[in-house]
Amino acid sequence: MSWPLLKTDVVASRGLRVLPLAFASAAVWLMPAMIGLLLYVFALITGASGAGAGGIIGLAVLLITMPTLSWLFVLPGVFLFWALLRAGWGGLLIALAVGATLAAGITLLAGGSDGYSVFAMAGLVHAAVFWLILRWG
After folding, report:
1. 3-class DSSP assignment, residue 16
2. Distance of alpha carbon 2 from alpha carbon 27, whole angstroms
3. What DSSP line would sit under 34-95, residue for residue?
4. Which tens digit of pLDDT belongs to each residue from 51-76?
5. 116-136 and 92-110 helices cross at what angle (nearest 10)?
6. Is the pTM of this model over 0.70?
């Protein structure tokens, strides 16, 4: 199944089953925790110490605990992208736009625009990985 950047085949996208959608959603939701766990193990194996170690371990702990809040944009993003996909708008740029839009909404809920770049990066990465899993699934 070929998925271009914007428009997709409506008939082909209606063939998407719940299992690949659920797998892609769970993978994207748990992805930060897996990366954080690998980073934490790496810090422990290398014996990182000093000021830099605190930053690495702090980032690892942040990533490990990220799934407790990331469902706030993963869940709505999945349903929004699924609806757009079924309407024929399931390309990569659409997925990235959904990720960036939800990241902007989360930023506003968090109380400002200072951290938008962090949320935007997370939203774009989550959206791209979700789209790639669906495309190859």
Report:
1. coil
2. 22
3. HHHHHHHHHHHHHT--SHHHHHHHHHHHHHHHTHHHHHHHHHHHHHHHHHHHHTT--SHHHH
4. 566 678 888 888 899 888 888 788 88
5. 150
6. yes
